[in-house]
Amino acid sequence: MWEGVFLRKYKSTPPALLMGLATAFLYLVAIYGIMTFIFERPMTGLIVSSGIMAGVLGLAMQNSLADLVAGVSISIERPFKIGDWVELDDGTLGEVVDINWRATHIKSWHNSLYILPNARISNARVHNYSRPEETYCCWIFVHIPSTVPPTLVRRVLLQAAVESEKVLIDPAPVIRVSEVGGSYKYMVFVHFESYPSHYAGLDDLFMHVWVQCARHGIVPSAVTSEIIMRKGVAEEIKGPSPDDLLAEVELFSEVDEGSRQGLVSKMKVHAMPMGEEVVCQGDQGTSLYIISAGMVRVIIDTSDGGTQEVAKLGAGQYFGEMSLLAHEPRTATVMAHTDCQLLEIDKESMKSVFDSHPELMQIMAR
Q1: Is the pLDDT of residue 229 over 50?
Q2: Which CATH number fits domain 136-215: 3.50.30.40, 3.30.43.10, 3.30.70.100, 3.20.20.80?
Q3: Rounded CA gap, 331 and 328, in Å?
Q4: Residues 86-145: pLDDT tens digits?
Q5: Residue 12: what pLDDT?
């Protein structure tokens, strides 16, 4: 019965330590009641002598009793649970693997075990890396020469974060300019599944940052003070051309260069900030949108008046094909999940491409 009361009040099952103590207390009360009321045996003398004995034992075992009380407190308050990653104010770091009446066991990165008295933990400052949510957020800083356009850098770093398999896409990665000087300092803010997974995640993220920077001809700068003397005009670093962006999209990879150039001369390039609405469900439109960087969310209206996310689309994917092909209203609302770059191509521009490459219509209609 008391277990159900605990569950209703604290929204969790009672800890094993607390259950054991409560069970022992109930047994003592039951024994006292049986001896007093059924067998009619006076228990006063036993209680007095037990009290004296308890006082003596209390003095002798005060440290153990302090651990016991602290263990009960930890079990009720639950600042951490088995499986949580915690760090104490003395630098002790690891995964909680056991909590008993006397001590808490923490497994370290070295596959060794810290056995810490509960009284010590109850008086320590505990940093729980697994609360309030299992996901763990952190950020890295990347220094890029000031000659590189910030819009290009933010797009490149965002693409690196999105392509990293370890980085969560929800919550979305965020890129911000942190400091401005001889070089620009960019913050890449990301989330990982858990605290221990963020170490491998950062390694994977760094590799994708390097690959994306190298792909766009960007060399991250060292944090140094230097005097640069130039003769002539400094080399200008530019992002990929619209034709390069279109060629990287799988849908247009087999389209001849002449047809692509015709699209490039007419298409529009949009830089959409995070949270911006691109198209709205029910609106009229005949444009195709291609994602060249970042991610978008596809959301539909539900019958109960709410909304539901049905997909996330990333670089190289497209939306709006049904409005382009069938002149239908937009079937979903699309919002920028991260800062993103979109290529917009209208129906008239696509007509000549469809004439020379009819297979594109079949691919888009699937």
Answers
A1: no
A2: 3.30.70.100
A3: 8
A4: 999 999 999 999 988 788 999 999 999 999 888 888 888 999 999 989 999 999 999 998
A5: 56
Collect all residues with Cβ–Cβ distance below 8 Å to 340 and sequence separation of at least 6: 158, 271, 272, 291, 293, 294, 295, 296
pLDDT digits (tens, 9 = 90+) for 174-228: 999 998 887 899 999 999 999 999 999 999 999 999 999 988 888 887 654 444 4
Reported CATH class of domain 242-365: mainly beta
Q: In a 10 Å sphere around its CB, with 0-12 CB exposed, 13-18 middle and 19+ buried, how is residue 270 labelled?
A: middle
Nearest to 344, CA basis, from 325, 311, 364, 321: 321
Average pLDDT, the chain: 80
* Distance, CA of 245 to CA of 250 (rounded, Å): 11
**Average pLDDT for residues 222-248, to the nearest whole number?**
56
Question: By the 8 A CB rule, do 159 and 291 touch?
Answer: no
CA 358, 360, 363, 366 torsion: positive or negative? Answer: negative
The structural domains of the chain, with segments of one domain joined by +, span 2-128, 136-215, 242-365
For the ranges 51-60, 79-88, 337-346, which has the lowest average pLDDT?
A: 51-60
Class at the top of the CATH hierarchy for domain 2-128: mainly beta
Asked whether this chain's domains 136-215 and 242-365 adopt the same fold, the reply is no
φ, ψ at 165 (rounded to 5°): -70, -25
